[in-house]
Design goal:
The chain is of the alpha/beta class and about 425 residues long. It has helices spanning about 15-30, 45-55, 85-95, 105-120, 140-150, 195-210, 215-220, 235-245, 295-310, 340-355, 365-370, 375-380, 410-430; strands spanning about 35-40, 65, 75-80, 100-105, 155-165, 170-175, 185-190, 225-230, 310-320, 325, 360-365, 385-395. The strands form two sheets. An eight-stranded mixed sheet has the order 5-6-8-7-9-12-10-11, with helices on both faces. Helix 6 (about 195-210) packs across helix 13 (about 410-430). The protein is globular, with a radius of gyration of 21 Å.
C-alpha cells in the first residue's frame, strides 16, 4: 500500500505573512461567493417546474443550478448570489415552493479548497511523496503524470492525445503488460469545478501501479486487458476554476457572435446532440456547442477511442450526489443489456458501501437525473462499449462541489472497490 502524506510544514511568522499576502492577492482577482447560498427544494407540479425553469432565463440574477430543474420527482439545487437571496426566496415562497438552505455561505468552502491547492506542492518529489489528500494545481498534476510513467516504465506509458482549445496537452496514462488488448477507459475532470473527480483518479492510478504484482485481481486483469486513464479531460476549465471562477464548469473555447465562452463538454458528444437536457444558448451552463465534437477535448477522446477500436468499459468520474449511472440519458428506451448493467451497478455499489457505509443509488441517466443529450456515456455505449458508467461521487449536498480535502482519500478508496468490480466483470467475460 502506498503512503498518503498529510505533512504540515511549519512556517515562520514572516513566511506565514507572505503566504497569506499571496492568498489575498490571488483571491482579489477571483470571483468570490461571500454570502452566496445553495438552496434545495422540490416542485410538486409542472407549473411550479416551469416557474423555476424561468429563473434560469433571468441572466441578471446570475443563478447557478447545481441540480437542474428537470422533473417534479427530483430535487433541485440552486446557488444564489448574496444580493439575490431574498428575491429568490420570496419567489419560491410566493409560489408555494418549500426550500431548505443547503449551504448558508459558500465562500468558506471555496477558501478551504483554495488554500489546499495553494500549499499542495510543498515537498512534492515523485509520486510517493505526493499528497493524495489535497487538491492540486494543473502543473503539479502534469508533473505527477510524468513521474508515474517514469517510475513504472514496464507498466505505464504517458500518451498525448491532443490539445485543449487554449493549447494545453491532453494526456492519457496507459497501463499495459502486452499489446492489442481489450481496453478499459476512465476519465475525470471533464467539468472544471468537479475537483474531487481528478483527485480520486490520481489516487486510483497510483493504486494500480502499487497493486500490480501484489493483488491477484488487478494483476490478472492487467494480464488480459489495458487500462487508459485521462485524469484531466478539461484542463482549461480546471485552471479557470482555480484562477478566476471556482464554480466554472465548461471548456474555455470562444465561438463567434457571443460574449460568452465555453461549452459543456459532456453535452458535446454525438449522442442525440442538441436534444433535451442540453442547451443551445452559449451562455448556459449546459451549452452543447455549435456542433457535435466541436471541442478539441471531446474530439480527442472520440478519435482515440475510435482509432483503438476495442474498448469494453467506459467509466467517467463526476461529482456530486453519490450515484452510479448508465445509458441512456436521451431516451427512455433501455439499452440492450440493461439488466446486466443494472445488476453490475448494484454489485459495484455494494462493494463501495462495504468500506465506509456510503450510500449510492443507481439507474439509467434518464431515470435518475432526467434527460441528458450529448453525454459521453450514451455516445460510448453506441460505439459498442458494453459497460458504460458514470460515477457521481461524494457527497449528497452538504458540501456539493466543494468537498473538503479530508474526504478525497476515503472517496477514492471506496470508489476504487466499485470500479474494480466493473473491470473484473468485463475481464471475466473475455475468453
Amino acid at each position: 500500500m502506498f503512503k498518503i502524506h498529510f505533512t504540515e510544514q511549519p512556517l515562520k511568522m514572516r513566511g506565514l505573512w507572505l503566504f497569506h499576502s499571496i492568498v489575498l492577492v490571488v483571491a482579489h482577482s477571483r470571483v468570490t461567493f461571500v454570502g452566496d447560498q445553495v438552496l434545495r427544494f422540490r416542485v410538486i407540479s409542472q407549473e411550479q417546474l416551469a416557474m423555476v425553469k424561468s429563473l434560469a432565463e433571468l441572466d441578471n440574477l446570475k443563478l447557478d443550478f447545481w441540480k437542474e430543474p428537470v422533473s417534479i420527482s427530483l430535487p433541485i439545487e440552486l446557488r444564489v448570489p448574496r444580493k439575490h437571496v431574498h428575491t429568490v426566496k420570496s419567489f419560491l415562497e410566493s409560489n408555494g415552493i418549500t426550500y431548505s438552505v443547503m449551504i448558508k455561505n459558500l465562500q468558506p468552502l471555496v477558501d478551504e479548497q483554495h488554500m489546499s491547492m495553494l500549499g499542495s506542492d510543498l515537498g512534492q518529489n515523485g509520486t510517493d511523496s505526493f499528497n493524495y489528500g489535497d487538491y492540486h494545481k494543473l502543473k503539479e498534476i502534469f508533473t505527477w503524470l510524468k513521474d508515474l510513467a517514469a517510475e513504472n516504465p514496464q507498466l505505464v506509458r504517458r500518451i498525448k492525445i491532443g490539445r485543449s482549445s487554449q493549447g494545453r496537452a491532453l494526456h492519457v496514462l496507459k497501463f499495459s503488460t502486452g499489446r492489442n488488448r481489450p481496453a478499459i477507459w476512465i476519465d475525470s475532470g471533464i467539468h472544471g469545478r468537479e475537483r474531487v473527480a481528478p483527485a480520486v483518479a490520481i489516487w486510483i492510478a497510483k493504486k494500480i501501479t502499487t497493486d500490480y504484482g501484489i493483488d491477484p485481481s488487478i494483476t490478472s486483469l492487467l494480464n488480459k486487458m489495458d487500462i487508459f486513464m485521462e485524469i484531466m479531460a478539461n484542463p482549461d476549465g480546471y485552471v479557470y476554476s482555480w484562477t478566476t471562477n471556482p464554480m466554472w464548469r465548461k471548456t474555455m473555447s470562444k465561438g463567434p457572435g457571443t460574449h460568452c465562452f465555453g461549452v459543456d463538454a459532456n453535452r458535446n458528444f454525438d449522442a442525440n446532440f442538441g436534444g433535451n437536457g442540453s442547451s443551445k444558448a452559449p451562455c448556459a451552463e449546459s451549452y452543447c456547442g455549435p456542433h457535435a465534437h466541436s471541442e478539441p477535448e471531446v474530439k480527442a477522446i472520440v478519435n482515440f477511442i475510435k482509432n483503438h477500436g476495442n474498448f469494453m468499459v467506459f467509466i467517467t468520474l463526476h461529482s456530486y450526489f453519490q450515484r452510479l449511472l448508465y445509458p441512456y440519458g436521451h431516451t427512455h428506451m433501455p439499452p440492450e443489456n440493461f439488466e446486466e448493467l443494472a445488476t453490475l451497478a448494484s454489485e459495484a455499489i455494494e462493494a463501495l458501501t462495504s468500506l465506509y457505509g456510503t450510500q449510492y443509488t443507481h439507474g439509467s441517466i434518464v431515470q435518475v437525473i432526467g434527460e441528458s443529450s450529448g453525454n459521453s456515456i450514451d455516445w460510448s455505449y453506441d460505439q459498442g462499449i458494453k459497460y458504460a458508467y458514470a460515477f457521481e461521487l461524494r457527497d449528497e449536498g452538504q458540501y456539493g462541489f466543494k468537498l473538503p480535502p479530508n474526504q478525497i482519500v476515503p472517496t477514492a478508496e471506496e470508489t476504487w472497490l466499485a470500479i474494480k468490480k466493473i473491470m473484473e466483470h468485463a475481464s471475466n467475460v473475455l475468453p
